[in-house]
Amino acid sequence: MAPLSKADRKAALDVAAWMFNIVTSVGLIMVNKALMATHGFSFATTLTGLHFATTTLTTVVLRWLGLVQASHLPLPELLKFVLFANLSIVGMNVSLMWNSVGFYQIAKLCMIPVSCLLEVLLDKIHYSRDTKLSIVVVLVGVAVCTVTDVSVNTKGLIAATIAVCSTSLQQYYVHFLQRKYSLGSFNLLGHTAPAQAGSLLLLGPFLDFWLTNKRVDAFAYSAAAVFFIILSCLIAVGTNLSQFICIGRFSAVSFQVLGHMKTILVLILGFIFFGKEGLNLHVILGMILAVTGMIWYGNASSKPGGKERRSYLMPADKSQRHGVLSERGEHDEKV
Q1: Is residue 4 within 8 Å of residue 193, measured between CB atoms?
Q2: What DSSP state is assigned to residue 34?
Q3: Which of 183, 216, 317, 335 is geometrically suited to a Cys-Cys bond with 43, CB 3.0 to 4.6 A?
Q4: Cα separations (Å) of 140 from 104, 161, 265?
C-alpha cells in the first residue's frame, strides 16, 4: 500500500479530531443530563471545576511520564484566558437561568457571527460569498430545530451578551495562544486547567447556591450519583483536549459551525433515549437544513478563497519573518 500524502494525512487527522470532539462532547452531555435530571445533581459550575481538576491531574501525570514536554505561557496571557473562560461558563449558566430556552439557543447561535467578526478584525480573514451563505444556512437550520419560546428581559440580555462575547473570545484565544507560543493542546491545557479548576471550585459552590438555592455539600451523594460524577469528569478530559485540538487545527468559527453537529446529535439521541416528545416535521427539516449547511461550509471554506487570510505586500527585509510564521503554521497543522 502506497504511503499517504501529507494532504491525506492531514485530512485523516482532521476527521479524527472532529470525531473525537463529537463523541466526547455528546457523551458528556448525555452523562450530565442523566446526572442532573435523574439524580438531581444540579451544581453545574462546581461540576465544571471538577472537570478541570481531573484534566489538571491528567496533564500532571502525562508530564511526569515524559509524554508532555514543559512549555511557557506568560502569566498575563494565562490570566486573560482564564477570565474569558470563566466568564463564559458563568455567563452561560446565568443566561440559561434568566432567559427562556429559546433565547438561550439564539444566544449560542450568535457566537458564530461574533467569532467571524473577531477573525475578520484581528486575523484579517476574508470569507467568500458561499462560505457566508453556508453559515447562514447552518444558523437557520439549528434555529428551526432548537428555538421554541423566545422571551428576554434586561438582565437576561446582559448575561447572554457577556456569555456570547466571553465564549467567542475564549475560543479565539485558544487558537491565538497555540499559534503565538507554539503550544500543543496538552501543553495549553497544562497551563490553563489548574487555574480554571482552582477558581471554579472556589466560585462554583457559591454560584450554584445562588442559581439553585441548594448547597453542594448538602447533596445526598448516592453511589450512582458519584459514579456519574466520576464518569463525567473522565469524559470531560477528552472533551477539553479535543476542543483545544480542533480549534488549534482549524479556527473558532469552524469549531462553532461544525460544532452544531453535536446539537443535532444530542437532539436525535434525546428523542431516542428520552422519548419522542417535541419531534415533528419542522424539527426534522431544521436538522436536515443544518447538516446541509455544515457540509456546504466544509466544502466552501476549503476551496481557494473560501476562507483565507488577507495577504499584503511585505518589504523584502521582512521576508525572513514571514518564513518564520510559515514554519509556525506548518507546526500548527501537526498539533
Answers
A1: no
A2: I
A3: 216
A4: 15, 20, 17
Nearest CA among 52, 325, 98, 81 for reference residue 210: 98
Q: Tell me if residue 275 falls in helix, strand or coil.
A: coil
- Give residue-wise pLDDT tens across range 30-64: 899 889 888 889 899 999 999 999 999 999 998 89
Nearest CA among 15, 25, 7 for reference residue 241: 25
Q: Which three cell numbers stand for residue 24?
A: 466526547
pLDDT in tens, 242-299: 988 888 887 778 888 877 777 777 777 767 766 655 567 777 888 888 888 888 988 8
| Predicted pLDDT at 314 | 41
Classify strands 307-309 and 125-127 as parallel, antiparallel or unpaired.
Answer: antiparallel
Residue 27, pLDDT above cutoff 60: yes
Q: Which residue has the higher pLDDT, 105 or 176?
A: 176
> Quick one: 146 exposed, middle or buried, by C-beta within 10 A (0-12, 13-18, 19+)?
buried
User: Rounded to an integer, what distance in angstroms lies between the CA atom of residue 101 and that of residue 95?
Assistant: 9
CA distances from 164 to 85, 171, 176, 203 (A): 11, 11, 18, 20
Look at residue 275 in the predicted model and tell me its pLDDT: 62
Comparing 318 with 176, which gets the higher pLDDT? Answer: 176
20-46 burial: b if 16+ Cβ within 10 Å, else e: bbbbbbbbbbbbbebbbeebebbbbbb
Q: Which residue has the cell 480573514?
A: 125
Residues 171 and 247 sit within 8 Å (Cβ to Cβ): yes
Query: What span, in angstroms and rounded, lies between the C-alpha atoms of 234 and 38?
Result: 19
Q: Which three cell numbers stand for residue 99?
A: 432567559
Query: Which ranges of the chain would DSSP assign to H, the alpha helix?
Result: 6-33, 44-64, 75-98, 101-109, 111-122, 129-146, 154-181, 185-212, 223-249, 252-274, 281-302, 319-333
What whole-number distance in Å separates Cα of residue 320 and Cα of residue 172?
A: 27
pLDDT at 145: 80
Where in the chain are the domains?
A: 15-123+149-251
